[in-house]
Amino acid sequence: MTKATEFLSRAKEQAGDAVQVVEIGGGCNNHCYFCNVLDQPYETDFEYLAETIRTGAAQSRTDVVLTGHEPTIHPQFVDLVKFARDTGFKRIRIETNGRLFAYPKFASAVLDAGATEIAINLPAHSEKLALQINPIPGALKQTIRGLKNLLQSDSGNLTVSTIVPV
To answer: Average pLDDT for residues 56-74, to the nearest whole number?
Structure first.
């Protein structure tokens, strides 16, 4: 079961059928050893993803979750967020490793496009532990910088989800 599928199951229990999940493909800028979605064949075509968003709106869903591999690296990601907002979704949640939010212009663009909730996976509290989970040097530092950028914004809704290594 993918992270998105698990979230959708929980969300449906809590909110009925109000959530539309959009699983965006295209790879990831992390290489976490535990990743359970990297091999999933998620879609990258903008029109296909937009149609998934339209379908949710037509079914009177109020929330959309942009997830998948690492959704923020999709070349039209900001356009997808804006499309979801313009289609009428009230809650636009992004599930991400947060690394691209380290760039203030990107963070602002996503928030301005309409993101209302950003769930950042923060898999470790130290670089040493982070490198045992994700072999990309500096990835944790970049995620923390992204988190700080979002906290300094006026976004209002910020969720940080953590993975606890056991």
So the answer is: 93
